[in-house]
Structures are given as structure tokens and as C-alpha cells.
Amino acid sequence: MATLLDPDARGRVILVGAGPGDPGLLTVRAVEALASADVVVHDGLIDDRVLDLAPADAVRISVAKRRARHTLPQEAINALIVAHVKTGARVVRLKGGDPFIFGRGGEEVEAVRAAGLPVEVIPGVSAALGCAAEAMLPLTHRDHSSAVSFVAGQCKGLSEQDWSGLAGRGRTLVIYMGVATAEAIADKLMADGVAPDMPVAVLEKGTCPGHRALRTLLADLGAMVAREDVCSPAIIVVGEVVDLSDAEDKLASYARVAETMA
């Protein structure tokens, strides 16, 4: 059976995880897939150095997404991929992080399979793993956390989401796409019983130029995001493991909130 990386295999699509930003975090198989591409359909935050791994004559199509502002709706992206594959092209769908962690990769696989076309997925280093490693933040630790959960902070009906038990002592919660709703997230977690003085880190632009790792307490999360003018892409990590990281303490606010909890 031909594989997607077979130079004679055509009319195929491969979903490739591009990792959190740094081209050095691409897998070997991801590099091979890009080198074989006729068409690259890519997210908006993909580093140009990653795109340059595709052949010079490969067609590059950006389907950039931002909060409330999409170049194409997901259904149109699915149709675009299928249309190019049907021409016999080798299509690489290049996605930030990992395709199956808040990347809507599952929907794209469904669309390609529904069209009767072959598809493969190459995993990538997720934003949580890459950004946490850069900040020396262990998502699990034998003494501090035996479980880690991933949730999306940018979702409808945030207050109705059931996050009970996902954050607290001995657990780590990683929140994707939560910058715009940071204050509401903090309020929700505290209402669900998470201590206001639980350590929290915000990892902004992880593995990319201008990256920052900031640390405060849960009760101060929304205020810190505003005060520090944190921008997407960024992830939020909640848990005791945050105190093991190299994230920069925002000392004035951190100390003030801690005093109120004493």
C-alpha cells in the first residue's frame, strides 16, 4: 500500500502538527510531509521558516483564524481540502500545535473520509507541552500533580461548563484560548471551589520571539492579564506545579492577594 510520503502517491491529504511555533520542534515525519507537498493549507500563526520547508512551487493557502474573525469558516476549509485532493494533489493541512488538541483535526478527518479520500495524521508538540517545557513548568509531578486536564476557555456558555474536579490540589488544569475570558475563568474556578491563592501561570507566545511566562494567583488572574497586556496566543496553567516553574512572579499583586488569603 502506498503511503502519503511515497513520491508516487497522489490525491492524498496529511494533517501535520506544526508544534507551538519554534520550527525546531517539528517532527522528522512532519518535515518529510512538507517536502512532498503540492498544496499547503495552513493556519495563520505558522512560522515562515516552517512554510519554507515545502517545495518552492507548492501552493500555499492561509486559512487564518482569530477570535470572532475567520478567513474561512470550518466547513469551507473542509471543502477546500477535499477539492484540492480530488485534483490529485498531495495536500498538507498544516496546523499549529497538535491537530487533535483543539485543532479541529477530527472534523477535517471526517470530511476527507466522507469524500472517500485517504488521510493521515502526523502529531505535533502541543502548545501545552511546548510552552510548559520552555517555562520549566512540569505539568505533572510526583509530589504536586498526578493528573492534568486540557480545556478550551473560548467557548459558549462558559459558566455552564462542568470543570469541577479539574483544578485544585494535586491536579493541573491547562486552559487554551482563555486570555479574553481570563477573569470569568478565574471567577468560575473559585466558584467551583478552587482556592483563590492557587498558583496560576500565563504562557504567552510560547517558543516564539517575544515569549513571556508570568505567574500570579488565581484571584489576580484577570487583573494580571489586563495589567500586563497579555495577548494571544497564550495558555493558562492552574496548579501547584506553577510554583516550580521559571515563570516571572508579578510580585506586587502576588503578595497582595496572598495577604488577603492569610
Automatic annotation (TrEMBL):
Keywords, sorted A to Z: Methyltransferase, Porphyrin biosynthesis, S-adenosyl-L-methionine, Transferase
Classification via CDD domains: SUMT
Gene Ontology molecular function, alphabetical: uroporphyrin-III C-methyltransferase activity
GO biological process: methylation
Sequence ranges assigned to domain Tetrapyrrole methylase in this UniProt record: 12-221
EC number in record: 2.1.1.107
Gene3D superfamilies for this protein: Cobalt-precorrin-4 Transmethylase, Domain 1, Methyltransferase, Cobalt-precorrin-4 Transmethylase, Domain 2
Enzyme superclass (EC): transferase
Alphabetized InterPro entries for the sequence: 4pyrrol_Mease, 4pyrrol_Methylase_sf, 4pyrrole_Mease_sub1, 4pyrrole_Mease_sub2, CobA/CysG_C, Siro_Cobalamin_biosynth, Uropor_MeTrfase_CS
Membership in a protein family: Belongs to the precorrin methyltransferase family.
The name this protein goes by in its record: uroporphyrinogen-III C-methyltransferase
Gene that this sequence comes from: cobA
